[in-house]
Amino acid sequence: MGAVCCCFSEPIDFDSEVTLYHFDLHRAVGRGAFGKVRVVEHKNTKKLYALKYIDKAQCIRQKAVANVVQERRLLEKIDHAFIVNMRYAFQDDDNCFFVLDLMLGGDLRFHLERKGPLPETTVKFWLAQLALGVAYLHSQRIIHRDLKPDNVLLDSQGNAHITDFNVAIHYSDRRPHKGVAGSMAYMAPEVLARKGYSWQIDWWSLGITTYELLFNKRPFDGKSVERMTNSILKEPVKFPTDTVPVSDHAINILKQLLERDPTKRFGCRSVNHLNDFYEHPWFGRLEWDKLESKELTAPFIPDMKQANFDVSHELDEFLMVEKPLTHSKRKANADIEKLKPELRQLEEQYIYRL
């Protein structure tokens, strides 16, 4: 038997399957298309995590059950220095829960909106970290499919981490994917052309993200889906260096990341996808081993004395939500066979994980 806590009428066995009762609930820090995020503290270890929770009823209404199950399965298989890793997964009658590494430094969209174009040295540091994360995902045969500033979180030391695997998928070399998923402004040409794509699309999205961090705007624009598609497929990339000075090395790497031919794209030209990064002069004498072990000091350290997220999330949780998150016991002896198909799928496939 493990240690117990007597905060409730019944003691908590910390050696049993994890439930929400194992955590103290703290402030709300974010929300996404399929769920919300709160800071939680494990009652036994006192370690802080991010709790992403997804309302089952809303998930079913949005026809997102398969996405949630897929995300949980993918996160089960990965663990990397520059990824927001999953530590636990469980559910109750109303919600599915992901317990993830806590990142209180904010996402890159938050900092971009408040600071405008970011310094080249900072963007270069983050690009190197994200390249390591992307290459790791590809080594696990995973395509993220939605890399963008919103899906990169900073820890308290300014290190970048990839998050949100809601539309991520496994890939096969034998069968290209044709499904359109992700955020259109960051989609590679081969996705929009619907001729089949694979892992190469993540390097394009990383190129769009890097461009946006440097110039505070995206390289392709359009007020309609048709115009945006045409821009991504055909228009040349322009670099507003007259308003935001950027080095020639930075421009060179952007041009290669935003190469429309995936066989010639930066990160796609050799068996080791990182060789292009290791050999590019923009990274100079970067010590990649020390970068991956987080021994290098980041050029930008978030101010941890302030909230690096939209504080309206917390107001929304307590003032606008009809049913705020609370600890609740599961109904005893539920008959899975009598559940609706979607709820049954969650019960059978969104399983406990420690």
UniProtKB/TrEMBL annotation:
UniProt keyword annotation of Transferase present: yes
Residue ranges annotated for the Protein kinase domain, each copy included: 23-283
Keywords noted in UniProt: ATP-binding, Kinase, Nucleotide-binding, Serine/threonine-protein kinase, Transferase
AGC-kinase C-terminal domain: residues covered: 284-354
GO biological process: G protein-coupled receptor signaling pathway; regulation of signal transduction
Binding residues for ATP: 52
Any GO MF annotation of the entry: G protein-coupled receptor kinase activity
Family: Belongs to the protein kinase superfamily.
Name of the protein in question: Kinase-like domain-containing protein
Species whose genome carries this gene: Rhodocollybia butyracea
